[in-house]
């Protein structure tokens, strides 16, 4: 049962909210916004089910699991009364898209150029939650909390919009009048009912900059995303070979994509991320494709040990790098590509074959196929040899 105002202390909940705000700001987070934990079920269920019915989630089977909890926070935690939503600015200190115009280097999404934000933000939320609990006890409230940072079935963006932190733009990401598009989101579920904030209204107007900027046309309509065409999905979530028709459109994006975020006009209010742990590493701002293509599993793990990139593994990452090399137009990569034709990973071999088909004259590619195709046992890789530039 949700805990209401404590007898004799009618302002306890307001005072707790004010204390939470002060603590969040001290930790470098945005001012918290509060949304009720209940009342979202049918609306979020309908939105999620429409997305799943159209299979726009691609291979992300986890999105179809625990749909009831994903759409209704009180199913995830029946004691939840309020949800405190905060953001953490991670705005870049340079033009986020400049790197996409440099074909000899890899473009890594801004959020992944520093330490894994899950660890950084969760640490801050745990500190905030502990202080909220302590302050609640001081005020006579039996406060219980649960912390979430993109690791549980929580529909963060709709909840953040309901809290008034921002609104979901036409690219489906959260946009804030005060912070722009560069925000990590985190939630603290509380068993007490804190004063709720008003939801934010949509301020996109007639702008469609984010829709027009998408390299792969991943938005079937405003406010709708087909993840199967999204470069972030393709380079991070998708485990197999990337569809051939989308590969040339990826350019040199080797982990994620920022195009729809970066072009949002509301970013004129965005702040450069102040959290030192999230600052871009110099070696991830413009990493050499030639160097990245040579990473074995041990070198990959060492280079990305504290990075969110580590979770996709070496083979998937090198697949992305080889797609970028195929798009580079640079024949100096040819010796490296030939060297990868014997790689233990079929995913890597297949991407390498495609890159070779893009950089080699047809006759030279055909000669390589004669030499390597007979020994190739993987059907996906054999298909790459058989369909050059298809």
3D structure, described in words:
The protein is an alpha+beta fold and 390 residues long. It folds into 2 domains: 12-92 and 115-190, no CATH class; 209-264 and 280-386, no CATH class. It is built from 18 helices and 8 strands. The strands form 3 sheets. A 4-stranded antiparallel β-sheet has the order 1-2-7-4, with helices on both faces. It has a two-stranded parallel ribbon with strand order 3-8. β5 (167-168) and β6 (174-175) form a beta hairpin. The longest helix is centred in the N-terminal third of the chain and has 22 residues, at 117-138. The radius of gyration is 23 Å and the shape is elongated. The termini are far apart.
Number of distinct beta strands: 8
| Shape, principal axes of CA atoms | elongated
Distance between the termini: 60 Å
Percent strand equals 5-15%
How many domains? The number is 2
- Low-confidence segments, given as residue ranges, are none
**Helical amount among residues, as a percent range?**
40-55%
Oligomer: single chain
Brief summary of the model shown:
The protein is an alpha+beta fold and 390 residues long. The chain has two domains: 12-92 and 115-190, no CATH class; 209-264 and 280-386, no CATH class.
Topology:
Blueprint lengths: L11 H15 L6 E4 L4 H13 L13 H5 L1 H4 L5 E8 L17 E2 L8 H22 L6 E4 L7 H8 L3 E2 L5 E2 L7 E8 L18 H5 L17 H7 L9 H4 L2 E3 L3 H4 L19 H4 L3 H5 L3 H7 L9 H16 L5 H6 L6 H14 L2 H11 L6 H8 L4
Parallel strand pairs: 3-8
Antiparallel strand pairs: 1-2, 2-7, 4-7, 5-6
């Amino acid at each position: 049962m949700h805990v209401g105002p404590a007898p004799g202390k009618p302002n306890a909940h307001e005072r707790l909210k004010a204390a939470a705000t002060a603590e969040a700001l001290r930790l470098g987070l945005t001012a918290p916004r509060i949304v009720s934990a209940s009342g979202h079920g049918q609306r979020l269920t309908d939105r999620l089910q429409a997305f799943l019915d159209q299979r726009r989630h691609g291979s992300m089977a986890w999105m179809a699991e625990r749909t009831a909890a994903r759409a209704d926070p009180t199913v995830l935690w029946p004691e939840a009364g309020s949800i405190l939503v905060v953001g953490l600015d991670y705005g870049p200190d340079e033009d986020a898209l400049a790197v996409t115009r440099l074909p000899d280097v890899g473009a890594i999404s801004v959020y992944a150029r520093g330490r894994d934000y899950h660890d950084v933000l969760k640490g801050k939320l745990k500190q905030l939650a502990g202080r909220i609990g302590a302050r609640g006890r001081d005020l006579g409230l039996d406060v219980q909390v649960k912390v979430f940072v993109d690791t549980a079935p929580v529909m963060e963006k709709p909840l953040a919009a309901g809290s008034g932190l921002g609104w979901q733009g036409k690219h489906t990401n959260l946009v804030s009048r005060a912070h722009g598009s560069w925000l990590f989101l985190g939630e603290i579920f509380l068993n007490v009912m804190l004063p709720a904030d008003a939801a934010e209204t949509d301020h996109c107007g007639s702008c469609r900059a984010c829709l027009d900027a998408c390299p792969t046309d991943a938005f079937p309509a405003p406010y709708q995303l087909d993840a199967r065409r999204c470069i972030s999905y393709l380079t991070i979530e998708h485990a197999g070979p990337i569809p051939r028709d989308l590969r040339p459109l990826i350019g040199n994006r080797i982990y994620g994509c920022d195009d729809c975020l970066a072009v949002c006009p509301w970013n004129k209010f965005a702040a450069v991320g102040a959290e030192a742990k999230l600052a871009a590493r110099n070696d991830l701002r413009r990493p050499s494709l030639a160097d990245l293509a040579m990473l074995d599993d041990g070198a990959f793990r060492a280079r990305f040990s504290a990075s969110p990139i580590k979770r996709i593994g070496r083979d998937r990452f090198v697949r992305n790098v080889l797609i970028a090399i195929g798009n580079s137009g640079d024949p100096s990569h040819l010796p490296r590509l030939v060297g990868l034709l014997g790689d233990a990973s079929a995913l890597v071999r297949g991407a390498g074959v495609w890159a070779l088909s893009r950089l080699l004259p047809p006759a030279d590619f055909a000669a390589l196929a004669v030499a390597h195709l007979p020994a190739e046992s993987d059907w996906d890789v054999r298909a790459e040899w058989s369909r050059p530039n298809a």
